[in-house]
Structures are given as C-alpha cells and as structure tokens.
Amino acid sequence: MATQGKDLSHYDKNNLPDAAAMRIGIVVSEWNDDITENLYKGAVEALMDCGVDQFNIHRMNVPGSFELIYGCKTMQHRSYPVVNRRTKKPLDAIIAIGNVIRGETAHFDFVCQGVTQGIKDLNLNKTRIPVIFCVLTDDTHAQSAARSGGQHGNKGSEAAIAAIKMAAIKNDH
Fold first, then answer.
1. Where are the alpha helices (DSSP H) in 50-173?
2. Predicted confidence (pLDDT) per residue in 136-148, tens digit
3. 10, 58, 77, 107: which one is catalytic?
4. Measured between alpha carbons, how far is 168 from 173 in angstroms, rounded to an integer?
5. How confident is the model at residue 127 (pLDDT cuts 50, 70, 90)?
6. 71: domain CATH number?
7. Which residues form a coiled coil (predicted)?
C-alpha cells in the first residue's frame, strides 16, 4: 500500500480560503457506520477548525453508499435543509461519506463503480454545488479503519479540506 505508515490528513489552515461564511452539506451512509461516523467526525472537526460555523454544517443520513447519490442530489436541489433564512445563501459544497468493503461477490465492483459515476455526474450538473467524494473502497475493515482516523489519518478531514477549496472555486466564478 502506497500510504503504509503515513498519515495523509495534515493541512495548513493558513493556506486555505476563508471558510467562515461557508455552508457545507454532508451526506453519510449508515452502512459500516463505525467507519462512516469516524469519517463524519473528521470532516466536521476539520471544517470547524477552518472556521465553518457548526450551524452551517448540515447532515443527511442515507442507508448505504449507493444512496449517497440521491442524498447529494437532494441537497443540491434543495440547499438542504433550508436556505439560510438570514442570508438566503445555498450550500457551498457537499461531502458524500461512505464505505464499501470488498466481499465475496461482484457487488463491491458494481456499487463502487455506480457511486463513483453518480458523484461525477452530480459535479457536472447545473447546480454549481461541488460534491466531494469521500467513499472508502477497501479490501478489509482494517484498511478502512486505518483511513478513518487510524494510522493513515482521516479521509473525512481530507474531504473537508477539498470541500473548502472547491467551494472557494465555485464562489469565485
């Protein structure tokens, strides 16, 4: 594994765009919830560390990783849960959090491919709200644990940093 022995989740918040006014949606798969909850916690901690107000972080749960696509689409089109009443500001970015662990059937391949293509498609639609892919696709539970707060860091925090960067690109155009 290329990441063996490395924690890849470090960031320098001084080199990031101002996130104080950003609104971020997070769609979380309930499948493998021990992993997805750790990813969610990592994302929220990084967002708040970078200045995003906790009241501007909006969560939606979905049953599994395949359902992330619909959950993200719903957030894109509704600015879930509602547009900020004071500023009328929609979401700036959405993070899709899931975990698929390889099993004994081809189900893994179909789910991973479908979720990847679905999230890609959401990034090409007209809403202009970027969707960040934070779906761990590992061979074992131990690999997922290592990437969701273990020895390889937390991909949730990495997704949060990507969301801030992509939101800044969106807001600049």
1. 68-78, 107-124, 141-147, 155-172
2. 888 889 998 988 8
3. 107
4. 9
5. confident
6. 3.40.50.960
7. none
In which domain, by residue range, is 48 found?
A: 30-88+97-130+147-172
Q: Which amino acid is at 75?
A: M
Task: Tell whether 156 is covered by a domain.
Answer: yes
Is 132 assigned to a binding site? no
Which parts of 11-155 are beta strand (E)? 24-29, 57-62, 93-101, 131-138, 148-150, 153-154
Residue with tokens 């749960």: 61
Residue 99 labeled ligand binder: yes
State the pLDDT confidence band at 173, using cuts at 50, 70 and 90: low
pLDDT the model gives residue 73: 92
Residue 30, annotated as binding a ligand: no
Alpha-carbon span 134 to 41, nearest angstrom: 13
Cβ contact 46:165 at 8 Å? no
